[in-house]
Amino acid sequence: MSVLLGLAAIVTVAGALAAIAGRDARVAVVGLVVALSAAPFLADPLPTPAAIATRIVAALLAGYLLFVVLRETAVVTRGSLVGLPAETLAAAAAFVIGYGTSGLGSAALGPPEASATGFALAVIAVAPIVRGADIFRLGVALAILVTGAELVRVGLAGTPQPLEQLMTAALTVGLLGTVAVLCANVVAATGGLTMRNERRLSAMYEAHPLTPTAPSSFGRSLRPRRSAPVHALEDPAGAAAPVSGSSAGAWRIDEAVMRPDDAGPAAADDAPSATDLPSLDDAAVPTEPTEPTEPTEPTEP
Amino acid sequence: MSLVPFLAVAFGAAAAALIARGYRRLSLAIGLLGLVAATIAALAIVPGDRLGVGPGRLEATEFGRLFLALGCSTGLIIALIGLATAWQRNLPAALLGGFGAIGLALAIGDSITALMAILAGALVGSLVTIVRPITASNVQVASREFRAIAVAGAIAIVGMAWIARPLGPLAEEPTVFGVAYMAVALAAAIRFGAIPFHRWAARLSESAPEIALPLLLAWAPAAFAVVALAWTDRSIAPLLLPLQVERSVVLTVGVLSIVLGAVAAWLQDDLEHIVGYSIVQDAGFVILGLAILDPIAWQPTRTWILVFVVVKTAFAAWAVAVRTRFRTGSLPELGGWARRSPGLGLGLLLIVVATLGVPGLVAWDVRSRLVDLSITTGPLRLLVVVGGLASLGYYGRIALAGLRPPSILVLAGATERPRRAAEVDRSDVGAATDGIAIAAMDRGSTGTTGLAGVPDEISADTDPPPRPGLRSPRPIGGALTRFESTAASIWRANRAPIASAGVLVLALTALAVGVGGLGGPAAAAAPAPEPVAPTETFVPGQTEPASPTPSESRAPDESGPPSFAPIPTASTGGSGTPGESASPTEVASPTEGTTPSPSPTTTSAPTPSPSFAPTPSPS
Fold this sequence. Notes:
The structure holds two protein chains of two kinds. Chain A has helices at 3-21, 25-38, 49-70, 84-100, 112-130, 135-157, 162-190, 201-207, 266-270; strands at 222-224, 232-234, 240-242, 251-253, 256-258. By secondary structure, chain A is mainly alpha-helical. In chain A, strands 1-5-4 form a three-stranded antiparallel beta sheet, with no helix packed on it. Chain A has a two-stranded antiparallel ribbon with strand order 2-3. The longest helix of chain B has 29 residues, at 298-326. The two termini of chain B are 26 Å apart. Chain B is globular and about 75 Å long.
C-alpha cells in the first residue's frame, strides 16, 4: 500500500463517516466534500491533473450547493442511528474485506485500496438508505454509495479515462444538486430535514413545556387532552369529529394535542395525512386507540 | 461534429432557463425556444460523426439522432400542452437537460461512462417532481425516485465494471457473467419501476405532475435501458453462456410487469395511476428484450423502445388534457368525456393502435418478436401474450366511460370548439351558464385559468399563467402590447382545442413510429457507438492491451489471440490462472470461434485462456 493511496483511503472513509454521523448538517457537508475530493486520488496510475482538478471542483461546487441551502438554517440531522463507533468499526471491517478480496477472484487492474474504500463507503451508506427519514442523510448516503461504486469500479477495472472522470464529476454535481433541491423543499415544508410533516416531539418538550394556554414554538396553542385518537380532529367546540385523508389537522403528542386553530393558510396544505402521523420512532409514547372524548353536559344552575 | 450544436443548445438553454427562473416569461421563452432549437439540432446530427475527447470519443448514431429528435419534438408539444393545461415551470429546463445528457450518453461507446451521463441526466427530473403545495410527502416521493436512480446506477456500475478486465480463472465461471448481467438487467428494471420494484413509480405517478411523467418514467429509463442493452449485447450475448437461472429471474420481472401492470392499470380509477402502470406494463417488454441474451434481440428491443417512449408520452398528454378539462382524473366521474371531446377520443384511439398495432405493423411485430425470442413455448408464453393484449382492458374501460352519458363534471368542461378572445370572459363566468353549481362553487374560491371548471390548483399546478386582462400595460409600445394581449387572450380562450390538437399531434407521431415510419426500425438496427479501445467486446484478431502493472501483463497478453469460442468448462490445461500463459496452439483460432456451439458444456472447446475475458479499458 503506497502512502498516497493509504492516505487517500483514510481521508475518504473519514470524510464519509463524518458525513453520515455528523448531526450538524454543515459539518456533514464538509465531510462529504472531503470524501468526494479525496476519492479521485484512489487510482493507480493517478488520473491526469486536469481530471483530478475537475473532480475536486465538482465536489466543491456540489458541496456549495448544499451549503447554500443549509447555511440559513440551524437544522440538525439525526446523525447515525448506530453511533459513530459502530459505523467506524463496520467501515473498518468492510475495508479489510474489500482489501482482502480485491479483484473478487482474479487480478484487478486498479489498486486494492480503491476496492477497500468502495466497500467501506457502501457499508456506511446502507443504513441511511434503507431507513432514511431524513432527506439530507438519505441524499448524502446515496452520494456516498455511488462514490463507493465508482471506487469499486476503479479497483476492478483501473483508472477511468478523462471522459469518464468528467461524467463522474457531472454525476457528483447532479447528485448533490438534487439533494440540495430536496433539502430546500423539505425545509420549506417542515422546517427541518425529516420527511414528515410533524416536528420532533423531543425538541418541543425541551423548548416549551406543554401547558393548556402556552403557545407552542410553532405558533399554535397546545392544550392537554386525554386520549386523543389519532384520526380525530377537534372542532372549535371541543367535540371530536372524525376526519380522513389529508384534511386531518391534529398532531397527537402524548397526552396533548397541538391544535391548528391559529395556524396560517399553509397549515392546511402541510397538514399530515393519515400516513404521515407520528410513527413509533418519533413518538415518545406509543399511540393507542381510544374513544373520542364526549362533550361535557352543562350543569344546571 | 454535428452532435456539438445539439449539446450546446440543450445544456445552454437548460442552464439559461434555470438561471432566468425568477423571470417566468423569460424562462418560458428560453425553454420553448430551446426545445425548438434542440429539435432542429437533433435533426441535423449526422450519423457516424466522431469527436475526440481525450483518449475517448463521441460518435453520433442514427438511433441517437432519432431518439433525440423524437424526444425534443414531443417534449416541445408536451410543454405547449402543459402551458395550456397544467404548467410546470421547470419542465422545459428539465427536458432540455435530460435530453442533453441522453444525447451525450448515446454517443459514448464505453458503457460505464454512458451510464454515468444517463444518471446525471435523470437527476434533472427531480426539478419537475415536486409541485406546490410543497409537503413532506411530496419530497418523500421525490426522494424515492432519487433513491431508485442512485441505487440502480450503483448496481449497474459495479456489474459492468466486474467483467471489464481480464478475468483470469473467473472467465471459466459462467456465474461471473451471469451475476454481472443480472445486476445490470435488474438495475434497468429498478429504473423502469418494473414489478416488483414498482413502488416508487406508483407513488411518483400520484404525486408528480402528469405532464412530467413521460420524462420521469419513460424517456430517462429508456435511455438507461438502451445503454444496458448495448452492454449486454457487447459483453454477454456473444458468449452464449448457459445463464438459464439469471435469464429466468430477469424474465420473471418482465412477465410480472407485463401481466400485473395491465391488471393494476385496469383496477385503477385515477388516470395518473393508469398512465403510470401502463408505462410499467409496456416497460416489461423492454425487460424481455434484456432477457433474451441474443444479438437478434437488438433491433426489436430498440424499436420497441422508440415506440414505447412516444406512445407513453402521448398517453400522458391525453390524461393531462382530460384531467384539466373536466376537473377530475377519476374514471367514474369521466362519463361521456368522448362525447364532449371527440378530438381526445380520436387521440386515444390512435394511441391504442400505436401501442398494440395490428399484425403487419411494427408495434405488433416487435412485441411478438420479443415474446417469441424470450419464451418459446408453454403456458408462460400464453400468459405473456394475453398480458400484452390486456392493455385493451384498461384502454377499453376508458373508452367505455367516454361513451356513457356525460357526467356533471364533463358537462361543465370546456368544449373543443375554437373560440374568439371575446368569449373568454363569458366562459370564465364559468359553467354557471350550464347550470353547474358545483363548478361555480369551486371556482369561486380559486378562480379559473381559462378552461371552464378548471381550478387553479389543477390547471396551474405551480405557476398559473398571468391573466392578460389584469396585466398592467407596459410602456414599450402600444402595438406590441396590444398584439401580446390579443395573442394571450386567444391562447387563453382556446386552451381546450390547443390541448386536444397537441394530443392529436402526439398520437399521430406515436402512430407513425408504431407503423414503422420515421426510419425507426432502420435506426434501431444500427450499431451502438464503439468504444475507442473495446472494453467488453470480442474482436477477432485483436489482442488485449497491456495491463498497467508489469506483473500482470504477461498472463493476458501472452496467451494468444482471443477467441469467440464459448467458455469451456472442461479445462484440460488449467491455463487460466494469471501468470500462466497458454500456448497459442491451444487457443481456438478466430475462425473456429465464430461458430460457437450453443452448448458450451458439451463442446470440445480448446483450452481456456484469460483472453476469453473482456479486454480492459486502457488506463
